[in-house]
Amino acid sequence: MRRLAWRLARTTTQNQGDLLSHMAPPRPPAGRRKDPSGLFKALRLGDVRSWLLIAGVLVIVVATVVWVHQEPPTSPSGHTPTPSTSPSGHTPTPSTSPTGRPPMPTGVPGDWALKFDSEFNGTSLDTTKWSTGWYDTGITAPANNVENDCYDPAQVTEGGGALSLSLIKKSETCGDNEPYATGLVSTAGKFSFTYGFVEARVWLPAVPGSPGEVANWPGVWADGQSWPQDGEIDIAEGVGGQMCAHLHNAAVPEGIAAGGGSGCASGNYGGGWHTFAADWEPGVVTYYYDGVDIGRVTSGVTSAPMFLVLDYAVQNDAHVPATMKVQYMRVWQHP
Question: Per residue in 254-285, pLDDT tens?
């Protein structure tokens, strides 16, 4: 549905994704003198054995102090403290787990190898992984000609632990004159993959006065080089306030809904953080929202390489200004 009306020819070449105290002894009370006995009585200055004993004790004490100071700090419970909550109100997801291993897909166990990891925890977009706009530089036309927006790089920012795609009312020209400006990023020409598990953690604006209903037309998707022959996997897109999953191909360019019906998941997804994912395997694509299987498509699944896309578009009724945020986007494949 993202690209049902295709506008631009594609010439970009893709690369495969199969392609990181001790305490001192207490002093006796003032005015009192203890009579030395035992060990202290034996330690006389003229006794060589006493000096050797003193030296041995000192070596043990020094070694103990050095060892204690080399131990890594731990919390009172015995584990290394976890990162604090970021200023934006959510806990940053590290690129490795507390065990030092790469992160795994949410709620879907298995033998996975992390192939692509964009954490969006910097201060500017990583242009080695992502480009702004749709197959061009500067302000570009939208991927679907029913959109009422232009893609403007100025509407793409990164900071506070997230990528921000901001939709505003602003008249711009991108082939046609459009009343809105918004942001899109893609990995076209920089990263592509054939089969794998794709996941993004996303915050979506809600429709004012309708908590839970998603505003505008957000998209988390993967696209082939030649559309519709190479297919398109809509992992999550806003349709009528809901979040929905579809697969597009040459036989059914209008799209096949995950699990039949509308392909839209029940529940409220506006105004909160959620994970949206798809497991693309030979002959089947299974969709997961917050780690829960919401349905699958088992016909017309292509094997052509795809690249990743994130955008925040608008069609007809617009709720502006509004900003879609993305904390990370990752791709795993089976080893």
Answer: 999 999 899 999 999 999 999 999 999 999 99
Neighbour tally for 69: CB within 10 Å: 7
Short-list 320, 218, 197, 322, CA closest to 269? 218
Domain of residue 266, residue span: 113-333
Q: Which residues 6+ apart lie within 8 Å of 99 measured at CB?
A: none
Q: Is residue 15 a contact partner of residue 192, using CB atoms and an 8 Å limit?
A: yes
Residue 18, amino acid: D
User: Which stretch of DSSP H or E encloses residue 137?
Assistant: none
> Which of 65-74, 159-168, 317-326 has the least mean pLDDT?
65-74
The whole-angstrom separation of Cα 321 and Cα 305 is: 35
At residue 4, the pLDDT reads 60
Domain containing residue 274: CATH number: 2.60.120.200
The CA distance from 251 to 83, in Å, is 48
Using alpha carbons only, what angle is made at residue 45 by residues 39 and 49, rounded to the nearest 5 degrees?
60
Tell me, yes or no, whether 20 lies in a domain. Answer: no
Q: Is the dihedral of CA 135, 139, 141, 143 positive or negative?
A: positive
Number of domains in the chain: 1
Task: Judge whether residue 165 has pLDDT over 90.
Answer: yes
Closest CA to 147 of 2, 292, 330: 2
Report residue 207 CA to chain centroid gap: 24
Which SS3 state, helix, strand or coil, does residue 96 take? coil
The reply to whether 289 falls in a domain is: yes
Q: Would residue 235 count as lying in a domain?
A: yes
Q: What is the DSSP string of 271-282?
A: TEEEEEEEEEET
In this model, does residue 6 exceed pLDDT 70? no
Q: End-to-end distance of the chain based on CA atoms, in angstroms?
A: 32
Locus of tokens 């806003």: 238
Decide if pLDDT at 5 tops 60: no
In the chain, where does DSSP find H-type helix?
39-42, 48-70
Check residue 97 and give its pLDDT. 53
The full length of the chain comes to: 335
Asked whether 237 and 215 are in contact (CB, 8 A), the reply is no
